[in-house]
Amino acid sequence: MSVIDQIMSPVQTEMVEFENKFRESMHSDVAMLDKVTHYIIKRKGKQVRPLFVFLTAKMLGEVTQKTYDAATLVELLHTATLVHDDVVDDANERRGYFSINALWKNKIAVLVGDYMLSKILLLSIDKKNTDLLEIVARSVKEMSEGELLQIEKARLLDITEEIYYEVIRKKTASLIATCCESAVLSTGNIEYQEKMRQFGEYVGIAFQIKDDIFDYGIPGKIGKPTGIDIRERKLTLPIIYTLNNSNKEVRKELIAIIKNQNENRKSVQRAVSLVEENGGITYSYEQMLSYASKALDIIRDFPENEAKKSLELLVDYTMNREN
């Protein structure tokens, strides 16, 4: 049994039923749209975000119809943002397959993402889940703000560690926080709403730092080629730490590479070495573990059950995943 199968075991039945419900939510009478959404569904990843929804709900109480609604909304949002991100990044691949914009061009990809966002609105109104819609809408706002803040700071190469955390809290962590918060609402145990939102936020921050660290691993064993963030001038935590904690010569050389030599393979490898040699990776790894530990502390005193064990394993999995 794989780690993800082990994690999923307490909600295996619910996840299978969710797959069917999600497929139904994506259906359209427009043939082209139905073809594109079918392509997306067939190539979906590990379903980590719905897992957070179902495990949180089962840890705190019972999975309800509203839990399925919450999982559908967050997965529609996640999928819409991936489709739009590929357009923004001009990416031709997603998880080893052609992206939507690569196969159907940008205009259709944007419209497909818009369709999914509209489904969030319609499903929420149809099921009278305005409380869930409020949480999801807040996440859309924060994800957009985080992306724009990152673009703004990358242009100026002007980002502190404080701003970095603000970017990833909005851009990445807000969606996992939404998963956990909406799951609480679906069980009616609203006294845990703030705690589980914070839990999801800490996990999301740790998840993003792990992604940052991937950029310095060995190609073939990770999900990204080495140095891609440097080539894209993304100021991630390992780079920020190095810029803020190195001597003048190192800072000057690293900034010059990111600004002017980010297309040169040897220069990018030199930047990777500078970050490693000056403690950027070690520091980032420590920060990742710190946020994961903060997340686990939040649920430590919750009653023991299989869903809680799986949620703890899921946090651990986000730290140790290889893609």
Keywords for this entry:
323 residues; Farnesyl Diphosphate Synthase; two-stranded antiparallel sheet; 15 helices
Reconstruct the topology from this structure.
Layout: H1 3-8, H2 12-25, H3 31-42, H4 48-60, H5 65-88, E1 93-94, E2 97-98, H6 100-126, H7 130-156, H8 161-187, H9 193-214, H10 228-231, H11 237-244, H12 248-260, H13 265-277, H14 280-299, H15 306-320
Helix pairs in contact: 2-5, 4-5, 4-8, 4-15, 5-6, 5-7, 5-8, 7-8, 8-9, 9-14, 9-15, 11-14, 12-13, 14-15
Description:
The protein has 323 residues and is mainly alpha-helical. It has a single domain, classed as Orthogonal Bundle (Farnesyl Diphosphate Synthase). Helices cover 76% and strands 1% of the residues. The protein contains 15 helices and two strands. The protein has helices at 3-8, 12-25, 31-42, 48-60, 65-88, 100-126, 130-156, 161-187, 193-214, 228-231, 237-244, 248-260, 265-277, 280-299, 306-320; strands at 93-94, 97-98. It has a two-stranded antiparallel sheet. β1 (93-94) and β2 (97-98) form a beta hairpin. α4 (48-60) packs across α8 and α9 (193-214) packs parallel to α15. The two termini are 18 Å apart. The model is unreliable at 218-225 (pLDDT under 50).
- Annotated CATH architecture: Orthogonal Bundle
Shape, principal axes of CA atoms: globular
Largest sheet: number of strands, sense, barrel closure: 2 strands, antiparallel
> Mind telling me the C-alpha Rg?
20 Å
How many separate domains? 1
Q: So what's the oligomer here? A: single chain
